[in-house]
Write a structure and sequence with these properties.
75% of the residues lie in helices and 0% in strands. By secondary structure, it is mainly alpha-helical. It has 2 domains: 1-49, Orthogonal Bundle (Arc Repressor Mutant, subunit A); 62-184, Tetracycline Repressor, domain 2 (Orthogonal Bundle), CATH 1.10.357. The longest helix has 25 residues, at 51-75. It is elongated. It starts with 7 loop residues before the first helix and ends with a helix.
Length: 186
């Protein structure tokens, strides 16, 4: 009689997110995940037909909480500049927490699956929306394309700084915020 493992789906998810965060998508295989979960590889395949499906679920679920935090910031009745500061801080912290999974946000769509693009676009749209508010409040007229490029730059800077200067969170966040503020000083 096979051994029943309680909450195996949660254990698989926890093992997968740990490994994908630490090593990234390419270096992790189903055998590693099964070993980390302490199950047979065949059991893992009963839950996920392949690594891509498992990764897509891990990626999506891992960003749900961040998207909720971003929505909460967007809903706050605070100055646009304070919103962008909070958004940058949250995105930095959440991306750093994910390491290898966070890097997927600046890669070309490695998979045909739109889930990666949807999350990236949601985050970029939120940042761009705050930038539009700042534009309106400051009387500055950046066109939509420039606002989008500025939002992309912020996301790229966050990920680059995490990779290059991971022990300098406060300075990195401060730099990104001050760089953005330079855009609006005049």
């Amino acid at each position: 009689m096979p051994k029943i493992i309680e909450n195996l789906d949660i254990k698989i998810f926890d093992s997968a997110i740990k490994l994908f965060s630490e090593y990234g998508y390419k270096k992790v295989d189903m055998k590693m995940i099964a070993k980390e979960t302490k199950i047979a590889v065949g059991t893992l395949y009963n839950y996920y037909p392949n690594k891509k499906k498992l990764y897509a679920e891990v990626f999506t679920k891992s960003w749900e909480d961040t998207l909720k935090k971003a929505d909460d910031i967007m809903d706050k009745d605070i100055d646009s500049k304070q919103k962008i500061r909070e958004m940058i801080t949250i995105l930095y912290e959440e991306t750093a927490k994910r390491q290898g999974i966070g890097k997927e946000l600046i890669k070309e769509n490695v998979f045909e699956d739109n889930v990666f693009l949807e999350i990236k676009e949601k985050l970029l749209n939120d940042i761009q929306s705050i930038i539009k508010d700042i534009d309106t409040n400051q009387g500055i007229k950046l066109d939509d394309n420039m606002q989008k490029k500025l939002a992309q730059t912020i996301l790229i800077l966050i990920i680059t700084f995490i990779n290059e200067n991971k022990n300098e969170k406060d300075e990195n966040v401060k730099f990104i915020i001050e760089l953005l503020e330079c855009t609006y000083s005049g």
